[in-house]
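Quick question about two entries, pasted in order.
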Amino acid sequence: MFGIGFAELVVIAFVAVVVFGPDRLPGLARQAAQLVKQVRRFADSARDELRSELGPEYADLELQDLDPRRIVRKHIAEAMADDDEETGSPAARVTMTLPPGEQPPFDDEAT
């Protein structure tokens, strides 16, 4: 949960009890839970509105799919799968061999 372990949660709970007191803590926890519910409802409504605006081809859209890292991973995986389908398997790729003594091509402008 957010990269927080049990020991950190105990420390946070202890500090909360000391700072806010045991009388106000249940009310604050209730308010925090309501805030989380509101944020979740807002995110769900934004996702549903985005789905309806984009049309039926994006009916399975999730907000996590808009993460640039996931998009790049997805496209790379699709490209690799397409490449495997074209060649039959990764091991079936064509390799070029040079005759003995011939130098491989070299591009001076390559970085």
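Here is the second entry:
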Amino acid sequence: MKDIIKKYSNGEVTIVWRPAICQHSEICFHGLPDVFNPKASPWITPEGSTTERIINQVKQCPSGALSFYLNSEAPADEDQTSA
């Protein structure tokens, strides 16, 4: 099975989601529902909060399915494709 990776950016930070390893702990959307809403499409909307709050929430993901990088620090060869 192909490892699907989806990216969502607010221009400053990019949230990286790996659905194959998500444990569905619900910590993300209980902690920051303005960004993480499983009933919406797309379910991640980084425009809904500040970069700082997004980073703090993503760091709480127990499975590692959510990660992030600052766009200003992304490697030059990083695929910037978003979902």
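Reply: The radius of gyration is 12 Å. Confidence is low (pLDDT under 50) at residues 78-83. Hope that helps.
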